[in-house]
From TrEMBL:
Keyword entries, A-Z: Cell membrane, Electron transport, Heme, Iron, Membrane, Metal-binding, Nitrate assimilation, Oxidoreductase, Transmembrane, Transmembrane helix, Transport
Protein name: Respiratory nitrate reductase subunit gamma
Matching InterPro entries: Heme-iron_electron_transfer, NarG-like_domain, NarG-like_sf, Nitrate_red_gam
Domain of life, source organism: Bacteria
Major subcellular location class: membrane
Organism: Streptomyces longisporoflavus
Keyword Cytoplasm included in the entry's annotation: no
Amino acid sequence: MRTLLWGVIPYVVFVLLAAGLLWRYRYDKFGWTTRSSQVYESKLLNIASPMFHYGILFVLVGHLVGLFVPESWTEKAGVSEHTYHLFSLYGGTAAGVLLVLGIALLLYRRRTNAPVFRATTANDKLMYLVLFAAIVLGMVAKLTHASGEGYDYRDSMAPWARSLFTLQPDTDRMAGVPVMYQIHAVVGMALFALIPFTRLVHMFSAPVQYLFRPYVVYRSRDPRRVGARPERRGWEKTGS
């Protein structure tokens, strides 16, 4: 079971993520979007959306640092394990609370606004469920082992995560990991597998072309011609 969970499933998730992104780009390029519902309601969205996006950005950065920056590197930078633990505990909890509040407001908006609720698909509901579960489980795991120096996942889960990229998964590292952390990791992998098939796919989009496109020039309308329709062009004229 340990080999399956920590030595096989991660690569299955990676294949689903990579192949799903390629498939989505090839066959659903115009569906590569958040399917924004701002046209139905914007007041609450303007509050909830920044909370959600900033929260998930902070959480993602925290996970990347915790899993892929070795402890020896932070020690050389002058950051002791105790300092790192406190920063991870309080900073991670604050980011998690911000993210949970953002998700909660987005869910409230979807449920209470009729047009937004009608635009919500079963796919969206599954995505919100898995995303919410991953965040809450991570916070519970963190707070459950917050006493003292806390649980040092950088000595177990982090080496395992890095070993995946060498194609030699060190599954033994996950043997003594607390159950809540293991459940959080499994739900997190499920979330990554779902990304290509949900609106979360837009996280891989970046409007880089905007940096190189020509300026859009707007001209004021001639006040003498306000309300006047220009003469029809040849292909616009009717046969009468």
